[in-house]
Design goal:
25% helix, Dihydrofolate Reductase, subunit A, 6 helices, 219 residues, alpha/beta
Amino acid sequence: MLPKIIIHNSISLDGSLTNFEPNMGLHYKIAGNYKPDAHLIGSNTVKTGVTLFCDCIPNEEKEDCQKPKRDKTLPYWVIIDTKGALKGLLHVARRFEFSRDIIVLISEKTSKDYIQYLEERNYDYRVAGEDNVDLKTALEILAGDYAVKEILTDTGRILNNLLLNQGLVSEISLLIHPVIVGKDAYSMFSGIDKKLSLTLQKEEAFDDGYVWIVYRVNG
């Protein structure tokens, strides 16, 4: 059985993922309500986060090349990175204390140089596609090799839209911010190629106009 996938994002009232200041404290407080076995993240999202929150990328240390010894109830970070975009940056993500460790999803076209980089640093990686990562295959691998039953995605539009278009998403969790981005909006759902039917599961209002809504994806 494939893992359950929950999309969790902070958006503006007009559905933009960017060009506004998200309430990250509330965003991650809500994310903490879920207890996923893994977080599925695209390499661009990780790279953006690292460069945004690190004024200077820290040097890789010897201990960064070893698997961290952390609570096994913590979720894995599963990162899709077929082109090796995170070479030289993965140690920053590995230091995140609320992650059990990192699993990298690659393809048959991923460079041998990047694979060597992963192997030398004891990162788990799995080949899950020829050119790009086949998401269904990747989910099967995560379920079979790591007993992953529930995945939370906190990522950008491209990966979320691919998951929705392929019918792999069970639930959508949205923290709506009291702001309209307007003409500069980066619409979360602009890549959806079919109409999706949803059922409201939960709604909760917070101070300062924030609203959290959760939908089940029907079918």
